[in-house]
Amino acid sequence: PMIVGNELIGVLDTQADTTNRFTDEDIRVKTTLAEQLGVALSNARQYERTVAALAETETQARSLALLNELSGELTSANTSDEIFEIAAPKVGEMFGAVRASIAMLNEADNTLEVFALKGESGAVPLGMTLPVQGTSIGISVLERRVVNTADAQKSDLKDVQGLAKQGIRSTVSA
After folding, report:
1. Largest CB tally within 10 Å, which of 49, 114, 143, 154?
2. How confident is the model at residue 91 (pLDDT cuts 50, 70, 90)?
3. Sign of the dihedral through C-alpha 173, 104, 113, 103
4. How confident is the model over 31-59, as pLDDT tens digits?
């Protein structure tokens, strides 16, 4: 067995096509080799975890830097239009999204109007009015929660169906 500390991580197994092929010396060498392989594999696993954690940390650092930059730019914005122009591209960049939009609720007619857009307009062009009922962004408004559509092609929501036809595969409305 390949044991590192008290943890069994695997087994080194060898086979032969003759009976009684392995001597006591073969077994001692194989045991030592199994220990060395176990340590090497454990070290490799730890290295892989460290690299993955570092990549995640770098991703979080980039997101925090973008968030900080966005906060600074939003603080200097004086109009809604300036806020929209700043926010949509930055949000798309923060999350690696191909598209991002900001829609504002019009309570008078219970619709949402798209005021800002990052990426191609596609199924949701700037200025488009969407109903609150039957849409992902509408559910986010009505239920005051984040709506995560993991597979846009399987959605029955009007706005997500339109995006799926444009090649979008997942959405989050917040």
Report:
1. 114
2. confident
3. negative
4. 999 999 999 999 999 999 999 999 999 98
DSSP state of 152: G
Res 157 pLDDT > 80? yes
Cα–Cα distances in Å, from 168 out to 80, 98, 117, 130, 155?
A: 27, 8, 15, 18, 12
Residue 121 near residue 132 (C-beta atoms within 8 A) = no
Q: Tell me the residue type at 166.
A: Q
Q: What is the pTM of this model?
A: 0.61
As a whole number, the mean pLDDT across the chain is 90
Distance CA 97, CA 173 (A): 12
Token pair recorded at residue 91: 């949000």
Look up residue 64 and give its amino acid.
L
150 — pLDDT class (breaks 50, 70, 90): very high
Pick the closest to residue 45 from 89, 4, 92, 80 (CA basis).
4
Q: How far apart are CA 9 and CA 3, in angstroms?
A: 6
Question: Under the phi-then-psi rule, with left for phi > 0, alpha for psi from -120 to 50, and beta for the rest, what region is 5?
Answer: left
Rounded Cα distance, 107 and 174, in Å: 18
